[in-house]
Each structure stands twice: as C-alpha cells, then as structure tokens.
Amino acid sequence: MSRLLVNGKEKELFVSAVVAAAGSSSRFGEDKLFLLLDGMPTLARSIDALQKSDCIDEIIVSTSGENLTRVNSLVKQYSFTKVTAVCEGGKTRAESVKNAVDKCSGKTDIIAIHDGARPFVAADTVRRTVEAAASFGAAACAVKVKDTVKIVDENETVKATPEREFLRAVQTPQAFSFEIYKKALENAPDGVTDDCMTVEAAGQRVVLVEGEYTNIKITTPDDISLSQAILKGRAK
User: Is residue 173 reached through a cis peptide bond, with omega within 30 degrees of 0 on the bond before it?
Assistant: First the structure.
C-alpha cells in the first residue's frame, strides 16, 4: 500500500501501474523499446522509473506477442520486483491496457498507465499524477505548448489558430480511480490515442498536473539525440 496525499489528508491506497508496450514502432523503423540508451533499453528505463517510485505497488507490462519472452527476460535481468505480470496486448491501445487491467491485483485502488517508450519520467511527476487521480478521479501530467498550433484541413490549408494559452501536450503517466477506468473501458471509443480519452468519453473530468519537457516519448530517430542530451544532463 502507498501513502498518498488525498484531498489534503494522508491515505493508504494500492496503486497498480500498467506499462503500455505493445506498439509496432512503425514510425521509428526498429523496435524502439529495446533501443539502448546509455546501455539500458528504453523499456527497462521506463519500468525502472516506476520500480523506484514509492507510490507504485505493482507493475503490469502489456506487450506484443512476439516480445513476451524478451520482456520477461528483461524483467528478470534488471530485477524488477514490482512487476507481477507480463501480458500480451491487443490490436489497439485500449485493448492492450484492458488486458493488463485484467491482471491487476484485486486490491487496486488507483491505476497509473505509462508509455513503455517514455523513459525519463521523474518520481515527483509520478507521485503528483497519482495523488491528483486519488483526489479527483482522473489525472495526467502535461506541459504547456511552446509553439503556435494550426488546425488544417485535408489539403494542409490553415483553418484556425487556437489560443496557445489553453493548449497542453499531454504525457504519461495518466492515472485513474480503478473503478472509474474499468467502467469506462467497457465502452471505450475507437481510435483513442491516450487513456484520458477513454474516461473523457464516459463523462469523467480529467485534471492535469505539471509535467516535464524532458518526459519525452521516443517516437522518431530524431528523439535519440534529445535522449542523449537528457542523459548527459542528468549525469552532471
């Protein structure tokens, strides 16, 4: 059980973390989950961040069928003692997370979902997101958008320019009351790109907490040089 600050009071809750690692890495060209970042695979760094968090009680990894053996070996290699299950994902993110949810402990109060390719999340960000979910039902970390964003049509013609002040780039972890998220999964809409969309579709309010610009998701080869810069900065 984790001791969390919930609405200003300390409370003991059981927090399960799901690592979503069943993607195809189609935009990267190779399996980014096993790309070495200063000698450690991307996925291992993502799990390690949760392993070291004092507000995560168990971890379930959802991965592709072809990577099941490889991920199990990685869990053993790095002694990730909080990992209680490695399961096969589905065709969509919602299906992959649902398969992991089914493996969660019967004691789970809060579920935190994190991208397997987001290796640099800080412990403080994990805690603040989990505590916000415990207080409000659903939460995610996010950062302010730095660039001006344009909405375009199918011909790449600008249709609108939303006010940057109200735009946020949402990251993971995204955390939820277990009961709220499990119920929302029953009617998850098609094409969800993050887990907040699942509960938003069910009418649930989602609160955002401040994230970090270094909490990047490894998506394209260009992200490698940025990863190296982050690692170099942390080594100082």
Answer: yes
